[in-house]
UniProtKB/TrEMBL annotation:
Gene3D superfamilies: 3.40.50.11190, Glycogen Phosphorylase B (3.40.50.2000)
Keyword annotations of the record: Hydrolase
Source taxonomy: Bacteria, Pseudomonadati, Pseudomonadota, Alphaproteobacteria, Rhodobacterales
Protein's UniProt keywords contain Cytoplasm: no
Name of the featured protein: UDP-2,4-diacetamido-2,4,6-trideoxy-beta-L-altropyranose hydrolase
Record-annotated active site: 19 (proton acceptor)
Length: 351
């Protein structure tokens, strides 16, 4: 059986690019199965040459309008392509919106934001955060017997370069510290890291800062890095081999988004500073399961506290080694296949 899956994706400098990455990777897996994918939402400015082979259609949405307007947009695409399979990688799908999808008989997978629990009605409710448990969400499931919950890092969608990556050596001395906060606005996190950590972790330690091209603070960060003594910091914008760059680092200072799963599969010990309120629960989950310290949200963490937390890990080989092993045990790189097979009800074919 083959067909088409409609993806509704919300992505911007403020929201981040993780949603689009997940849609691309699911579309890649669907293509290998002979299915077509159609993307709704992201602006044309985010299209890459490889998207031509991933999506049979790319429909930008400049003005979302009301939930009713957007639901109608999704339903019209489903009708045009003769499909009932949908992936909603958009946290704005409120109960009224969901009711319209349910009434239309769609089978949909809903990625959701745990910071705003409301009534959920999808066939598949997904959150890869290590914090979420089905029991916590039973009061928020309109029909618990109808909605399957796919929670935890086993359902993390990763880019192909990470799924087969060779594990780094645990416990090695810290020489390179990754500092990255997604592909959009880092909200001052990179600037704080430079101010607090550059030249403060030892003469052999380099900060490896990574930003997306859409980060409005990018030029200022580049100027600051250029003014530092040689060897204190590097600045990479949309690096072509992010997996290789991460694997070459020894410690990470990151937010609680998609990169947290990439760090885990690389065995990269981590300090977390949440970029937005919806990252607080995932960061606390990582802290509980791996021991990775969560310091708080950007703008609430003092320079002294940040410096102390990173410095302590630089000096503690045993703690970093334990953290790396626990992270790798949680993420195996098969999340894309698990989610897609569940959406298409293929699991009986692949077990």
């Amino acid at each position: 059986m083959t067909g088409t899956v409609i993806f509704r994706c919300n992505v911007s400098a403020s929201v981040g690019l993780g949603h689009l990455m997940r849609c691309r990777e699911m579309a890649r897996y669907l293509g290998a199965l002979g299915w077509h994918s159609v993307l709704l939402g992201p602006p044309d400015s985010l299209r890459q040459p490889a998207d031509e082979g991933l999506f049979a259609g790319w429909h930008s949405v400049e003005d979302r309008g009301s939930s009713d307007d957007d639901a109608a947009r999704v339903l019209a695409l489903c009708e045009a392509h003769g499909t009932r399979h949908v992936v909603m990688d958009d946290y704005r799908v409120d109960p009224g919106y969901q009711q319209r999808l349910r009434a239309a008989g769609l089978r949909w997978l809903q990625q959701f934001d745990a910071s705003r629990p409301w009534m959920f009605q999808p066939d598949l409710l997904v959150n890869a955060s290590p914090y979420e448990k089905r029991a916590q969400y039973l009061p928020w499931l309109a029909e618990p017997e109808h909605t399957r919950t796919l929670f935890g890092p086993a359902y993390a969608v990763l880019r192909p370069a990470f799924t087969g990556i060779t594990a780094r050596v645990d416990g090695r001395a810290v020489r390179r510290v990754l500092v990255a906060f997604g592909g959009g606005d880092d909200r001052g996190a990179l600037e704080q890291a430079l101010r607090t950590l550059a030249g403060q972790l030892g003469p052999e330690v380099t900060l490896v800062l990574v930003s997306g091209a859409g980060n409005p603070r990018r030029a200022a960060i580049a100027e600051t890095v250029a003014a530092l003594p040689a060897g204190q910091a590097e600045f990479h914008v949309n690096p072509p081999d992010m997996a290789g760059l991460m694997r070459g680092c020894d410690l990470a200072l990151i937010g609680g988004g998609t990169m947290s799963y990439e760090a885990a599969i690389c065995g990269l010990p981590t300090v977390f500073v949440g970029l937005a309120p919806n990252q607080e629960r995932p960061c606390r989950g990582w802290q509980d399961l791996t021991g990775a310290p969560f310091l708080g949200l950007v703008g609430t963490v003092g320079d002294d506290r940040l410096r102390a937390a990173v410095s302590e890990l630089v000096e503690d080989d045993a703690r970093r080694r334990a953290m790396a092993a626990k992270g790798r045990a949680l993420v195996d790189g098969q999340g894309t296949q698990r989610l897609t097979d569940a959406l298409l009800e293929r699991e009986s074919e692949t077990t």
